[in-house]
Structures are given as C-alpha cells and as structure tokens.
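Predicting structure from sequence has reshaped protein science. With that in mind, we have picked out one protein's residues alongside their backbone shape tokens:
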Amino acid sequence: MMPNPTFPPLTVKAIRATPVEVPLNFVMGTSQGAFGKASLLLIDLETEEGVVGRSYIFSHMAAVSRAIANLLQEIESLTKGQRLDPPALFARLVGRFTLIGAQGVIRMAIAGFDVAAWDAAAIGANMTLCRLIGGTPKPVLAYNSCGLGLASDKGALAAEAEKLLERGFGAIKLRLGYATAGEDIAAVYAVRKRIGEKVRLMVDYNQALSVDEALTRGRALDAERIYWLEEPIRHDDYLGAARLVHELQTPVQLGENFSLPIAMQTALDSKAADYVMPDLERIGGITGWLQASEIAATHRVEMSSHLYPEVSAHLLSATPTAHYLEYVDWMDLLLEEPLKIENGHARVPHRPGHGMTWRTEIVERYRVS
C-alpha cells in the first residue's frame, strides 16, 4: 500500500539550483563512453517556514544541468505559495507538462523537485525520510559500482576489483561490451580470479548488444556464475528482453531507464525482467518510486536502486521486495556527512529527512557556470 503520511504545514517559497562537476575516484568506462567527472545539479527547496529540502540530479553534462535549472524556475512559479504536499504537487506538475510530455529534462526537473519536497516534509515532521514513507531504518545491502569500467589492462581491472571490496562489500559490478565476446569473458575471468567465488559479480552492457548478440554472449556468461545481466539490449525492447529472460540462465536486470512507473508496469507485464532497478530521477522521484515499489511487490519481483544511494537507502528500507542498493561515492566530496558503508551495507542516517547537507565551501569550489 502507498503510504499516506500527514505532511507538516509547510509552504513552497523558492528553488535554488547549483550545477557542479566533481572528479571521480574511478573513471567510469562503459560501452557508450567513459567519463572521469560527474556533472550534478544540487537543488535546494526553501519553504516559508525556514525548512530547506535538498536533492541532486546526475545530469551527465553541464548543458543538461543548465536546462534543468531553467525548468526548475518554471516549477518554482507553478508551486510558489502552495502547500508542500509532494504527491499532490507531483501530480500537478506532470499534468502541467502533459501536452509536451513529462519526459527527458522535464521529468528530471520534476523528480529533483519531488525529492527535495519529500526531504523538506520529513525535516518539518522531524522524521527520517524512511519513517515518513512507512519504513524502518536498517542496514541496506549494497554492491560497489564505483569502478570496473571497460579496460584494456585486465591486471589493472583485477586490482580495481579487489579495491572495491573494501568496507566489506560482497558484490561488485563490471561493465562489459568489449569488441568481442572473448574480451568480455577475459574481463570476467580476470576479475573472478581476483575476487574469488563468494563475491557476487553483476555485469552491465549499457544497451550495447543486439538481441542475437545478447543471446550469444549471455549463453557464454551463463557458465561464469554471473549474478545478473544488466541492460544487454536497448532498454525499451521488452519483447527482446523477454526472449533473453526465457532463454538465458543468468537473471536479466532492467530498470534504470524506466521512465515513470508505467514503463516498469509494461516491462513486468511483458515478463521482460527477472529483477528491476529503477532510477530515482527517471522513475519520477520519491513519488514515482513508491508507485514502482507497489508494482514490483504485485509482480513479486526484487527491486534494487540505480545511483542516488543517499536517498535510495531510505527508499529500499520501505520497499517490500528490496534487493540491492547501487553504491557510488560521487557525492561524498560535497556532503557534510557522506553515506556510511559498513560490512557491505549502507547505514540509513537517523537525521531528519534523507540526511544530506552540502559542504558550502566545497560546492563553491566545484561549481560551474
């Protein structure tokens, strides 16, 4: 059941958006390209009562951050003076953009606003976000997704895998999509030899393959004890994904590109995934996540998160079919108190809201125009 919290009496006053670019500790090499820094947009939602809710969006590039910031100005004009009721405001904003479609940067802006609104509501109620949405703070099982991009040096890849097991992680994710299936298997061999059999190894193709090639490489990976096979083909080819689910032994993971909960409903109705992992921005913020978690529970499908670990830890604590949290450390530089990982689990902070506050001087250092 969707939670029906009583929101404190808060009123939307203003929205600030700050674009930053932070360096990554590990270059993220995928089949679609590599990046060594993360373009993020920090969002502050001020209320008339002095409570500030926060969120951030991974925007991939500074130009997208600027576009989202412009849309947030429009969202401010549409919500200024309104009572802070996140689901109601979410519905109003989606309705406002129906004719053009609540997709792309429009959806990103709405989701960023929604997360900040829920954070402000939880702070105003003096509750952790997870309690506000009906959960209980508890350790959340996580895998380390900070590195293991495509690499020509398999020895360096294996060394990176070992480093990612620090802090007790029992699972890591490897990006695949090399020019040949043989190179994919060589990368898996190198990592598996270093981490051993007990560590769970997920692999992610970032939509690099055709259905036929995914079947060929998937069958080769079936012998390699892979925990899941993530986005091997175009993200919205649910017919093709259903074929992979039917013909491969390795579970198929989809979801980071589900755009709003309806896409997840369509994928699961099509039997296109063994597991799902919605992205907080693409699924529609916290309001969209809560709807998606009901869909996953109805289908009895385990649900993980994609990125945004600081907020996702709260959400998974209230998700009936919670599976894995995807951990990345991209925000650590910018936060007064970064998310803690102990024994491979994320520790939900007991601070009101989701617990993120910015280190102002560091934000200014990495701010971009």
Notes: The CA atoms of residues 55 and 116 lie 5 Å apart. The chain has a mean pLDDT of 96.
